[in-house]
From TrEMBL:
Gene this chain is encoded by: LOC108896186
GO CC annotation, single: membrane
Annotated membrane topology: Single-pass membrane protein
Domain of life: Eukaryota
Annotated ranges, domain LRRNT: 54-92
Record protein name field: Leucine-rich repeat-containing protein 3B
Pfam families, per the entry: LRR_1 (PF00560), LRR_8 (PF13855)
Family: Belongs to the LRRC3 family.
Length: 281
């Protein structure tokens, strides 16, 4: 691959006098590794360690020899979204103290070695069903504390084996959250730190989630059934009212029509008709 020129292959010759003129660089190259071999070494290093060149902007990527992967630190980088091109061999990912507002579905799908994910101190408001798809089997710690999370999909944590930290969020305690918490591997620790900023039960607002001893899913079902019953009763009452009004209106019209017929003068008999009757008799 090396081109034999004055930069790569030893001393250069002066075109004017044909003498060999040595520079300091030529002397260094003559006593050390040739430049072409150095360039080849750099190419091999780039091929062997592609993750270092793929480190996202604003992040620091350091190889961890103990975990056989990269520690990617993007803390306090003013990020508004999760970097789209994270190294596939990321083991520890720190995205804390940023302005990240959402966790798109399957955004971590290719990080099959990820063990720890820190998303604390951000602006995440909700979590979808596939927010952590692809890392369920390897993730050990998930920190979502100090965000703005109010609601999550009922299956957001269903397949996670990690210890989840979800405290200091303005949670709305409803059926979906109750199902999501119950699906965590370490649900008791997580639920103990969840405070209901709002709740389906007004007397539970401001209290720990574990203090909610009511099945919120059945409560929601009963509320829905009650609403449907009230709606059906309202429609039924409207139908009955219309039928009664229709019958009364028809009766009133029939009475008026009968009175009109009675008010009409009777038809007088003709003389010819009287004679015919007497002749017949």
């Amino acid at each position: 691959m090396c081109v034999r020129d004055q930069w790569c292959c030893g001393p250069r010759r002066d075109a004017a006098d044909g003498l060999v003129s040595m520079t300091l660089l030529d002397v260094w190259l003559s006593r050390s590794i040739p430049m072409c071999l150095l360039l080849q070494s750099l190419v091999l290093m780039a091929l062997c360690f592609p993750s270092a060149s793929m480190c996202p902007k604003g992040c620091i990527c350091q190889r961890d020899p103990h975990l056989h992967g990269l520690n990617v630190t993007c803390s306090q980088s003013r990020l508004k979204e999760i970097p789209p091109s994270l190294p596939v061999d990321t083991v520890l990912l720190r995205l804390d103290h940023n302005q990240i507002g959402a966790v798109p579905d399957q955004t971590f799908h290719g990080l099959r070695l990820l063990r720890e994910l820190n998303l604390s101190y951000n602006a995440v408001e909700t979590l979808g069903e596939a927010a952590f798809s692809g890392i369920e089997g390897t993730l050990q710690v998930l920190d979502l504390s100090h965000n703005r999370i109010t609601s999550v999909h009922k299956d957001a944590f269903a397949r996670l084996k990690a210890r989840v930290i979800v405290d200091d969020n303005p949670w709305h305690c409803d059926c979906a959250l109750q199902q999501a918490i119950s699906g965590m591997a370490h649900n008791h620790e997580a639920a103990a730190r969840v405070l209901c900023r709002s709740s389906e039960l007004r007397d539970q607002e401001g209290r720990p989630f574990l203090a909610v001893d009511t099945d919120l899913c059945n409560l929601a079902k009963r509320t829905t059934d009650y609403a449907m019953l009230v709606t059906m009763f309202g429609w039924f009452a409207m139908v009955i009212s219309y039928v009664v009004y229709y019958v009364r209106q028809n009766q009133e019209d029939a009475r008026r029509h009968l009175e009109y017929l009675k008010s009409l003068p009777s038809k007088p008999k003709k003389p010819d008709e009287a004679d015919d009757i007497s002749t017949v008799v």
